[in-house]
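Hello support,

Our group uses your service weekly, and this is the first time we've seen a run hang past the timeout. The protein is Signal peptidase I. I'm not sure whether the cause is the sequence or the server load. Input pasted verbatim:
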Amino acid sequence: MQAMQYITAAVLAAFVSYIGAWYMGAIEGNFALLLLLATVVTGAYWLAERIVFLPQRRQAAQAIEDAAAQRRAELDRMGIKKVDGDVAEAKGRILMQPWWLDWTAGLFPVIAVVFLLRSFLFEPFKIPSGSMIPTLLVGDLILVNKFTYGLRLPVINTKITQGNPVQRGDVMVFRYPPQPSMDYIKRVVGLPGDEVAYLDKRLTVNGQPVPTTALPDFFEQDSMRYFRQFEEQLGTHKHRLLNSPEAPAFVQGASNFKFRDQCRYSVEGVTCKVPEGHYFLMGDNRDNSLDSRYWGFVPDENIVGKAFFVWMNFGNLKRIGSFN
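Update from on-call engineer: The timeout came from a worker crash unrelated to the input. Re-ran successfully.
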């Protein structure tokens, strides 16, 4: 048992060190991998507790009870009726989980539920930037549907069920292609095979202008400014977007991404042919979004899920609800 204490202390120290190094920026952490390892490790302790450690404690407790019963019988034969010692208290101490099992096997059910929910059903995210204003604001806590586009194995992200096809206008969370450990959120504009053009601040898909209607200006509270606001319809999705007439139309600083030869850049903007198995995504805050115009296409294997609900914004409770 003492050896298990040292082993468990080393395992917990390794987890704490990993989280600490991640928090301090010394390493690039992977939460999905960390949660998987935590589930496997605590699951192993939980199984060992059921098969080995708990039966051993029960056997030891039974041995104490049997010894106490034998002692009482001997004292009865001697005519002694009063017996010192609390057998129930001693049994309770023996049956109680030691700390190293309490911090491993005891946490397994909670960790397993979180792992399953996050991997296959819904995953929470926090909006860190204003690239999706006015649809999503900084500080929105959102839920992402992990099974709409098909279930994927955690960590390796391999699809195991077909799911529904991605639709133009979906708000998608995905692994940022230049740095897959980071999650990004944008709106799907182009599907595989589409030709997407964003020229002079106007979006066209396969040569057809995307319908756009002017709306009253949007007041952005953080910057205390008004922005031109429009309603755009991508497929069946109607959503709002921001556009700044004074911002330049050309794309400045596009990287040398994969399939860049499928894009043509000019002073008017960019035109791209979306490769098979890839998607073209843009932010709703069109002039303040680092998106496919700059770093390229999102491959299917980078998809995390479809964002669909704001479950909390501590600065504005009216934000809670679904969105397009």
